[in-house]
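Dear support,

I submitted the protein below through the web form. The confirmation email said the job was done, but the results page showed an empty box. After a refresh the structure appeared. I'm attaching both so you can tell me whether what I see now is the final result or a partial one.
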Amino acid sequence: MAIKVVIVDDQLLIRTGLAEMLAGSEVDVVGQAGTAKQALQVCEKHKPHVVLLDVRLPDADGLDLLDTIRQKWPEIKVVIVSNYDNPTYVARAAALGASDFVLKSASRDELLAAIRAAAAGQIGATEGIFRQVMGLLSSPAPEEDQEHGLTQREFQVLRHLALGLSNREIARSLGISIETVKEHVQNLLRKLKVSERTQAAVWAMRKGVV
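What the results page shows now:
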């Protein structure tokens, strides 16, 4: 069965190149879009299996668009395709429901593997930074950090915070309410004896938490 794909990127050259790269495979590029507004229209029309989505769009944050797509059409899988392997981008993508994060320098085989895995419902199926960040966000606190009195959940929140995620994104990632995230943030700030989340993030990076 063909895998229906929509390509969303603000550069026509990139969209065309990706479409040509996928030609001759079971992937059927059913639509393209250069803006977030166009992307939503194309997704509504074609109901693709997978969306290939750039992080930067002229009319919206691509990761906010990821969130919108996943909320509106949970059955549509999204693979981020970006020039930037910025850990914050990757962590936000993971938190907001992306299936994978692939660099634009990826080979045809790597891109096809990510699309096939996403269509099959697999998360982080390809080797790379997305899988590494997913593992980091879900891994338990090392024993040496237990001395600071952080609970496992507070430690998870700290990792997310240190990677630049908002309370809303942390809540989505951990499957808890924003109010609960706020409580965890306040508790960990108190335990680390810092006054703001930026200081907590610096603490986490110095301790090798992220």
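Response: this is the final, complete result; the empty box was a page-load delay. The CA atoms of residues 87 and 108 lie 23 Å apart.
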